[in-house]
Structure formats: structure tokens, C-alpha cells
Structure to design on (78 residues):
């Protein structure tokens, strides 16, 4: 039983904790001007960062507000 728990820990729990930590670091490091991709597949440039939300400019003059947690990838700084 202990061996089975150890296998689950190293194959399932630990990798998920690493991914969650990386995502928390990515979200906390967001800044204005970053090119990002959201969980819904929206690509854009960060226009403003607030405590729980991020305003993303998806086209010239078109801005949307999304939750910080929905940002999944930072492509770079524009």
C-alpha cells in the first residue's frame, strides 16, 4: 500500500504541483507589454495588470479583460 502511494506521488501528484508552481510564477510575473495566450486561445498584448484581472489588447483599440489565472503562456515582450 505504501509502495502504491509512493508511485502515485511521483507519477501524478509531484508533476502536477510543479506545473501549478510554474503557472503561479508566470501569472505573478505578468507585466504590461507582454505577448500572451489565454486558456481560450486568445492571443494579445497585455495593456494593464490589476490584482485579479489582466486587460489584453487583441487588436488596435480592442481590449478585453480576463482573469489572471486564464493566461497560460507568455510569448515574449513586444
Amino acid at each position: 500500500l505504501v509502495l502504491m502511494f509512493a508511485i502515485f506521488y511521483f507519477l501524478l501528484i509531484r508533476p502536477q504541483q510543479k506545473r501549478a508552481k510554474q503557472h503561479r510564477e508566470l501569472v505573478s510575473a505578468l507585466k504590461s507589454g507582454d505577448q500572451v495566450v489565454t486558456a481560450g486561445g486568445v492571443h494579445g498584448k497585455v495593456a494593464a495588470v490589476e490584482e485579479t484581472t489582466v486587460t489584453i489588447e487583441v487588436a488596435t483599440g480592442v481590449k478585453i479583460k480576463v482573469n489572471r489565472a486564464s493566461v497560460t503562456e507568455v510569448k515574449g515582450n513586444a
